[in-house]
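Annex B.
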Amino acid sequence: MTAKLWIDSDVCMSSGRCVADLPRVFRFDDEEIAELVPDADIDAEFDAHRDLLVAAVRNCPAGAIHLQEDGVEVEA
Ligand code: SF4
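Ferredoxin: predicted structure tokens.
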């Protein structure tokens, strides 16, 4: 299983939900736009906590978080 996770920084509205819920994976940059924690192991996170990553996608109020599972986008 290969997971790909990314954030569309152009639409992030800085709600902080992802940062609060999953700080191992998400953090704010200097402008309070969400970004991935640089050393986060997304494949390991996906294997151990798929539900949390899917919840992050679904709970983002801006639809800014994207997750692909073996090339297929997980629907928000
Ligand atoms: S939950 Fe979405 S809108 Fe809120 S900080 Fe994270 S990426 Fe940005």
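The domain at 3-73 is CATH 3.30.70.20 (Alpha-Beta Plaits). The pocket of iron/sulfur cluster is lined by residues 7, 12-19, 34, 60-62, 64-65 (CB under 6 Å). Further annotation is deferred to the next reporting cycle.
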